[in-house]
Amino acid sequence: MTTSTEREDVPDGDPAENDGDGKAAPPVLGLGLLRKSFGRGFWGFAAFAGVSAVLCYVIRGPEEFASAVEDDIQMLLDTLPRVIAAMAIAGLIWVMLPRDRLTRLIGSDSGLRGLVVGTIAGIVTPGGPSSAFSLLAILGGAGADRGALVAYITAWSMLGLQRILVWDVPFMGAEFSLTRFLVCLPLPVLAGLLARRLPFAVVLADPLGGKGRQL
Amino acid sequence: MSIGLVVLYGLLGILALVALARGDETLRLSARRAVEQFFILVPRMFLALMASGFIARLIPSEVIARFLGHEAGFIAIVVASIAGLIVPAGPVIAFSIAAVFARSGASAPALIAFITSWSVFATHRIFIYEIPLLGPSFVRLRLVAAAATPILAGLLAAAVSWVVDIPLVAAP
């Protein structure tokens, strides 16, 4: 469980005021939303999927192609219920997150402690990428510092307990998984420290339109 | 039904109850946000999942496995880190490939570098989630900041394997 999802206390005031920089969410339900979901990114993906499908058919043959399609559909069916839950959770957290407290915990003045908190939160965040990246976007919009964000998502991806228990241990064995966990343990903090020193300008995307926060 | 899904829906239930207890607009606002994000992500996710399934079939696992043995040392760690970069798919495929590597005699440090590299760079996640939700400038920051982590993990694992043997159980 992450620190942010465990919070049961609520911030004061209208939830609409917690909308990152205080503005109300733009009305994107309807046609505008449809335009966003089938925008440029969508067609790029469509082209990519088409090319990889043709390559698979030509290089590996029709049988392998058919079994790939079957696997893909199965994977999609497995993923959909998770994505629905993850989006609902992310929506609730987005509205209820106590942003001021979060900023103190993992904001730009949080120092090494912020990186450690981010790493631990990443390790214990359950669920797949749809929950982790939604939460990451929320933390970013709520004032988390770039080092803490990098530490969080790096820790979730390389050290996430749920994935280690479900995948690493059965496939690779307990000793191997423990070794990998231990040697990787300092790496998210290291990546976070490096991220704070990198001179890149970072503007967070706002998938719903609007102007993203600058890190 | 997997444990992960149960945890996820349990968490959703708890949060929904908390939101309900607040008795304000929380539920309505959250639901709207959720629907918006769902419709932005799902069409891309569908296509990216299809593409990742096809690409996974094209990865020459047996060829890569030849470079991952104990005798290859540092080179094995580097090759494994690069191999992890090009697996654009979820854990089912990544761990099956790891199992192929393990059966072909890959060293434990190379396998640790591979799994770490795949977990950090999994390209399908970047395209499906990270670019739409965080934006390309964040992706660049994260990739550069974490670029060395698979090699570091492999080297640390090599240091460990000098002291103690790291046993491998590659599942069928």
Oligomeric state of this protein = heterodimer
Average pLDDT figure of chain A: 80
Biggest sheet details of chain B: none
- Which runs of chain A of at least 5 residues are low in confidence (pLDDT < 50)? 1-27
Cα-to-Cα separation, first versus last residue of chain A: 25 Å
In words, what does this structure look like?
The complex is a heterodimer of chains A (215) and B (172). By secondary structure, chain A is mostly helical. In chain A, 70% of the residues lie in helices and 0% in strands. Chain A has helices spanning 3-6, 31-37, 40-96, 99-106, 111-124, 129-141, 146-159, 161-172, 174-184, 187-197. In chain A, α7 (146-159) runs antiparallel to α10. The longest helix of chain A is centred in the N-terminal third of the chain and has 57 residues, at 40-96. Mean pLDDT of chain A is 80; it is low at 1-27. Chain B is mainly α. Chain B contains nine helices and no strands. The longest helix of chain B has 33 residues, at 26-58. Chain B is elongated and about 65 Å long. The two termini of chain B are 22 Å apart. Classes of the chains: A mainly alpha (215), B mainly alpha (172). At the A-B interface, α2, α3, α6, α7 and α8 of A face α1, α2, α5, α6 and α7 of B.
Short description:
The complex is a heterodimer of chains A (215) and B (172). Chain A is mostly helical and 215 residues long.
